[in-house]
Design goal:
alpha/beta, binds adenosine-5'-triphosphate, 7 helices, 10 strands, 4-stranded antiparallel beta sheet, about 35% helix, 6-stranded mixed beta sheet
Length: about 260
Amino acid sequence: MEQQQMTKKMEVKGISKTFYNKNSYFTAIENVSFDVKDGEFLVILGPGRCGKTVLLNIIAGLEEKTEGAVIYNGKEISGVNPEVGMVFQKLALMPFKTVLQNVELGMKFRGVPKAERHEVARRYIDLVGLKGFENSYPTQLSGGMKQRVGIARAYANDPKVLIMDEPFGQLDAQTRYSMQNEILRIWEQEKRTVVFVTNNIEEACYLGDRIILLSDCPAKVKEIYNIEIPRPRNMVSKEFMDLRAKISDNTDLAI
Ligand SMILES: Nc1ncnc2c1ncn2[C@@H]1O[C@H](COP(=O)(O)OP(=O)(O)OP(=O)(O)O)[C@@H](O)[C@H]1O
């Protein structure tokens, strides 16, 4: 009920992407359409190499589309959307910069004064649970901690929509589970729209308000699921396992 009242933040309309090489072409995405509602936790679930990253890059304006449109707050966007932030699986933290400097970097590029960017960076470092590690270097941190830095860095740039591309794909199972809970806590606290990409059905069912299920290549929207299970979700409850089985039966590949 609450979801139906949410306004549209973004509309992805009929997006297709074909890569042309000298003698061949390859269609990665075919006629993909869905809405992103303001404030929701939207999950895009699809098999590996099915075009998820290409789709995210198009949504963020980092990649050209072959067809279709991305509407943001009612207006068609071309080029980079400055209100969209990204968290990647491979974070590319600057190795010779501290946690604080890494989190501040985007603000520094935008010319935010030093005192203000220190304050904002510290607030997000606290939010992701890294208080006390401001002066540590990336090599001194675990995988989960590095992802926390990436999340703090993205939030510090004040995005209205945060896109996360398989951010926990390289973490061990236990760290992944704790980061899933962390990201939900931060999302509930910050109240920003999240578009989260994964190839893991369980993760999708645990996190999402809705799941956009993509087909194998070329990526098409196979089904959209509204998830009504209240949080915190219990992964071994009957309703959770039923949902998981329903989605699993509908996927093209074992993902
Ligand atoms: N610049 C490019 N030129 C040609 N093909 C490309 C280009 N970029 C991506 N592709 C192809 O598009 C397909 C989708 O790639 P993409 O990285 O979006 O998949 P993905 O779903 O994010 O995969 P994964 O789950 O492994 O991260 C792949 O087969 C890839 O080889």
